[in-house]
Prior knowledge:
The complex is a heterodimer. By secondary structure, chain A is an alpha/beta fold. Chain A is built from twelve helices and 13 strands. Chain A has helices at residues 16-32, 48-56, 71-81, 101-108, 178-183, 197-207, 228-231, 234-252, 255-275, 278-289, 291-299, 308-314, and strands spanning 5-11, 37-42, 61-64, 86-90, 94-96, 113-122, 134-138, 141-145, 157-158, 164-165, 173-177, 211-222, 327-328. In chain A, helix 8 (234-252) crosses helix 10 and helix 8 packs parallel to helix 11 (291-299). Chain B has helices at residues 17-31, 74-78, 83-94, 110-117, 152-167, 184-195, 200-221, 232-240, 258-261, 288-295, 313-326, 339-343, 361-368, 381-384, 399-411, 415-421, 429-456, 460-473, 477-494, 502-659, 669-700, 702-710, 712-724, and strands spanning 2-6, 35-42, 52-57, 60-66, 98-101, 122-125, 226-229, 248-250, 274-279, 302-307, 329-332, 348-351, 373-376, 391-394. Chains A and B meet through helix 8, helix 9 and helix 10 of A and helix 3, helix 18, helix 19 and helix 20 of B.
Amino acid sequence: xxxxxxxxxxxxxxxxxxxxxxxxxxxxxxxxxxxxxxxxxxxxxxxxxxxxxxxxxxxxxxxxxxxxxxxxxxxxxxxxxxxxxxxxxxxxxxxxxxxxxxxxxxxxxxxxxxxxxxxxxxxxxxxxxxxxxxxxxxxxxxxxxxxxxxxxxxxxxxxxxxxxxxxxxxxxxxxxxxxxxxxxxxxxxxxxxxxxxxxxxxxxxxxxxxxxxxxxxxxxxxxxxxxxxxxxxxxxxxxxxxxxxxxxxxxxxxxxxxxxxxxxxxxxxxxxxxxxxxxxxxxxxxxxxxxxxxxxxxxxxxxxxxxxxxxxxxxxxxxxxxxxxxxxxxx
Amino acid sequence: xxxxxxxxxxxxxxxxxxxxxxxxxxxxxxxxxxxxxxxxxxxxxxxxxxxxxxxxxxxxxxxxxxxxxxxxxxxxxxxxxxxxxxxxxxxxxxxxxxxxxxxxxxxxxxxxxxxxxxxxxxxxxxxxxxxxxxxxxxxxxxxxxxxxxxxxxxxxxxxxxxxxxxxxxxxxxxxxxxxxxxxxxxxxxxxxxxxxxxxxxxxxxxxxxxxxxxxxxxxxxxxxxxxxxxxxxxxxxxxxxxxxxxxxxxxxxxxxxxxxxxxxxxxxxxxxxxxxxxxxxxxxxxxxxxxxxxxxxxxxxxxxxxxxxxxxxxxxxxxxxxxxxxxxxxxxxxxxxxxxxxxxxxxxxxxxxxxxxxxxxxxxxxxxxxxxxxxxxxxxxxxxxxxxxxxxxxxxxxxxxxxxxxxxxxxxxxxxxxxxxxxxxxxxxxxxxxxxxxxxxxxxxxxxxxxxxxxxxxxxxxxxxxxxxxxxxxxxxxxxxxxxxxxxxxxxxxxxxxxxxxxxxxxxxxxxxxxxxxxxxxxxxxxxxxxxxxxxxxxxxxxxxxxxxxxxxxxxxxxxxxxxxxxxxxxxxxxxxxxxxxxxxxxxxxxxxxxxxxxxxxxxxxxxxxxxxxxxxxxxxxxxxxxxxxxxxxxxxxxxxxxxxxxxxxxxxxxxxxxxxxxxxxxxxxxxxxxxxxxxxxxxxxxxxxxxxxxxxxxxxxxxxxxxxxxxxxxxxxxxxxxxx
Lengths: 331, 725
């Protein structure tokens, strides 16, 4: 695959992460020699990163956001500014391995693939693969799993060399075509400030009839030293995660699933009432304040037939142990 | 505004100054449209410890926490375990915009922290010195005033002194004991502890605890955003104790005074007796004992009625006794609704407190009713009463000064009328409520600004979500549930799923009500489970102890059996020994008898010996004399015989010559002289024989043998041998 790629990195961090990880990326792109570019979106609102890049990494394209706008908007701005059609979105705490782009480009070139993510090794650990994931719909509630992380190891999926279907591509490490991104309407602003916007995008890709896959031959390490956990109170982070789960649910469940969901929701509210779980009620109320917006987005979404449960099963890498090279490790 | 009051007791359970004041304030704010919650406590054996019950009353919601377990130590007294957690749950449910603490006694300072950590502004009204004194009065156990401010040493001495009082086995000593209530010995022990002598080790340990608790108290009170002091005096003392004057404001109490304000002023004395009254608790620090003592001798010019009660039975009895003695009337407890009625028959009020009262509500009430107040020139009392204007001040703790002052008020012409005619502006509860509304609003605004500043430090894109998160987090749980249910209904309605209609929706509401109840019960259940676990642990310990005891009993039974066998053996041995003893006793008795006989014999023998000794001496003497006689006798006798002979011959010659007649020779004088001469010769021989016989007998006889055996022989031998020689 000899296509040039724009690597887009939204950045809110102090420059240390760029200093640590950009040289590896730039070296790899140099090796390719294909006019790849690196676009760093300075989301600090202060221009501090732009200045830093100018002195340390003059070859990097710096896009300055006039004020901090959050990951999705910064990434969108980067995609907008990119010269090439193929965009690899990347977090600043990700370190690429040699040859990571070629397999991704090869897989994305398939007609039925809309998004492709590399084998993302959490903390550089070979067995902890972040990019393997599934969406579950159980007892009327939607959740996601990452079976190749230690917390749910019993469901772990063994990877071969062949691409494997997953529910979503994590926004911090995915290859996409700008055209598709724009056709799908980019990221949904309902999910601001963060989390689930990439799941939503991926699900729209699936609902558009395209696949979202992990390309195991492409390897990157996620060193997980991002900003959010450092500067944002944990309760707020948790609230956003939960709030966006509800928005995703209400945006994508089909009518049948919604009936089941309504019962699940009642159960949850009753349970939260009984246990005094305000940490469940607050995000729900937050999401409800955005209900009108998300229902509008839902109404305007694709007309394709929607069977949530079926799609969730279809995209669950642990549900198809025999297909392709996918195999669920049996314990 | 959602306002929460926290108080350590509340009507109708408890009805003293702070509780009444809080109720009055809560009612006033509720009437103004605020959502008022009161978090308070009571002992309720029908509920589990720390169970909560909610009650709607006069527009307010009262949340009762059952505190059935008493603090087990000073640490728990400062911060009742579990109370802050329960308060936290309450705060989460209600999310008051401001928490106004009236008192945390019996609940704990942890409640201050619970409100603060939830970013809820904390107001604390100091009604006493609790913020710096765990006895809250700054009175020592000898009921003298404490000059220390947060001094671990002084607090430790207080603790030790209380322990000492405890050890004396007195009743109702918690507040302290007056000198006259203790023996000399008790008094000196108490003052030794309080004044710093002795008990160094015990006090050092207590100091360590007090240092720790003092630090915890200071730390908890740092959570207070605004400390309201009703008097300058209290504010000054708290600042001396380390409180930040910046966070403190002096705001006099505002009371419900409508009924008192419209009361007719007391009529002029015009020769009648002055009707004095005391209102309030009768605890020792209220000084009623001084008032009764001062009243002694005043019955001719005034009447005294004491309204109030104390659970301190011993002190109450002493007061009743004193009242009977001086002619005062003890009217007992009163209901605050009846206060105005009681004031109608009162001319003046006495507040004789011996502690630095903060701002006694009674003074405010009396002045509102235009009744002059006689009070001590101490603490914050002079802040309420202006001497010679609306009342009179006497020297604190000085019975004579109080008596003089009372007599003066009762007898000095025109004085009472002048004082009762003075109009004193007393703040009412409405004014107080307005003051508080302003402060609450300022604190909430300040808090919002602070949180906004914190949000400003977040990335800008998070500002709005963080603000919305904060706004939702500030909602009461009920409101969150209401919104969640509304959302479910909206979703259902949008997708025409039917959940918004008819029985489905009603069922959900029922489920939610049940869930709320379930939650309340689950908390009670948690307590019961904890109780159960505790009891199970205790049971298991007891079972273990019982098994140990059973084993011990079995072992002891064996031991008893062995001991019984041993005892039997000992008993038999003892019996045998007794028999032997008896036999031995008999032998001994016999031996003793023999001995006594021997001794008696010996004594007799000794006596005899002494007699014999005396005899021997006599005999020896006699012997000596006899020897002398013997030695002298032949010569003397011979000489005498010769002399006699010569005499006789001299007599014979003439006779022979004269008579020459020997016709009757036997009748002649010569013949008779011859017979006499022969008689003397025989006697001479007999005496010599006798002498020899005695010597021989002494030498050879039993006495000589005895003397030789007893050792006296050597001494005796001399003279026996001497006698024999």
